[in-house]
Specification:
Elements (H helix, E strand, L loop, with lengths): L7 H16 L9 H20 L6 E3 L4 E3 L1 H27 L5 H19 L3 H19 L8 H30 L4 H9 L5 H19 L7 H8 L2 H7 L2 H17 L4 H24 L4 H22 L2 H28 L15 H4 L1 H15 L5 H15 L3 H27 L12 H19 L2 H13 L4
Antiparallel strand pairs: 1-2
Helix pairs in contact: 1-2, 1-4, 2-3, 3-4, 3-10, 3-11, 3-14, 3-19, 3-20, 4-5, 4-11, 5-6, 6-8, 6-9, 7-11, 8-11, 8-12, 9-13, 10-14, 11-14, 12-13, 12-18, 13-14, 13-17, 13-18, 14-16, 14-17, 14-19, 14-20, 16-18, 16-19, 17-18, 17-19
Length: 479
Amino acid sequence: MPNLTPILPEIVILTAACLILVIDLFVSDGRRHVSYWLTQLALLVATCVTIKTMQLDATKAFNNMVVDDMLADFLRIGCFIAVSLMLFYSRTYLVARSLFHGETFVLTLFALLGMQVMVSGNNFLTLYLGLELLSLSLYAMVALARDHPGAAEGAMKYFVLGALASGMLLYGLSMIYGATGSLDIDTVARSVLGKQANPLLLTFGLVFVVSGIAFKLGAAPYHMWVPDVYQGAPTAITLLIGTAPKLAAFALTLRLLSGALQGSAFDWQGMLIVLSLLSMVLGNLIAIAQTNIKRMLAYSTIANMGFMLLGFLAADLNGFSAAMFYTITYVFTSLASFGIIMLLSRAGFECEQLDDFKGLNQRSPWFAFIMLLVMFSLAGLPPTVGFYAKFSVIEAAVNAGFVWLAVAAVVASLVGAFYYLRVVKLMYFDDAVDRSPLDTRGDARVLLSTNGVLLLLLGILPQPLMGLCVIALTQSRFL
């Protein structure tokens, strides 16, 4: 029997998904909360198992196809928390739109299982299987709301472009396999560092791999799916797509570029420069023209992924830790932003336009303040955590010698501040068009408030989280 300890969290989530799939068959429509709470219980148990089995030394299993290290455990816990918050925030929204049923919970757990496989994969095949499990679950979830306008269109675009990107990634990985003769990340890394790989084939494979990664991150010019999917999907599903999978995509990028292809850093740095610059410029400029809040946040995602890639350019511990810190804080900022959007939505009304935020301070001063913190954090304004996150990745780029790119990032950030502050202006200086009370559950209100305040506290005291990022990467030997 192999040692199952490294994959115990995955076993918990897979078992829970299968059990909920069967139990939900015997649950009436009026008692779907049973499946909901079983899902939340599974997330809690998986988190406790991950913490219980956490250890400093990396453990490999299944012929080195899976690695259980500090990085995997840290990102697993981040994914569990993000998915749990997504379910808390979206419960009222899902009930009002007849999406509060077993399929949603089961697909969410299978998507989470794919994320777990991605963060703990130590082989090209393992990483790709995790990516496909995540992607197929998300394609189905976007299309779940058959009556939602744009859902079918968004799902089709996501599926077609996602299949293209998966094919590019798989083709690139096959080329690297041909150049090095192995699918194992450690073996590939030794082959590349030892100059034993075919350089031409390796470079071609690297181009396709980086292209596939850029699509999964939503970086320009592979960003075409992001605004359409964000707008077309129900807001609860958009919340899922825009948060936890970013942590898994970060792990995929780190394990491929730093883990397997660190010896080709000069080649992939050049590609990331183009991706980062295009993402920051296009994302921030096009977001200014948006009147739909979900499309605006979609282009904001593109821009933020450009900032995150600045950390990877440094190709050292400081850069990777800054990128990891940026990804984690961006995920929790996005959770709060879409949480507020769902808070303002109700049965028969989707909060999708910027004008829907007019006079929010008159309706609810507290949640207007939470949204202000979210916008400040996304814009990178002190004292929110977004300021320190942007500062850390820009500092990493400067230390790596990319001063001109850091200057471009600062200018792009100033441009982006315009459309973020426009939301603040609408909330505080315009009269409310809709004065109906905000209707949501008490637990979602408490968690959303905590989430917003955390953006402020982490901005004032970012060192503990940054320290955890450094420890996770150091123990996982991403130096």
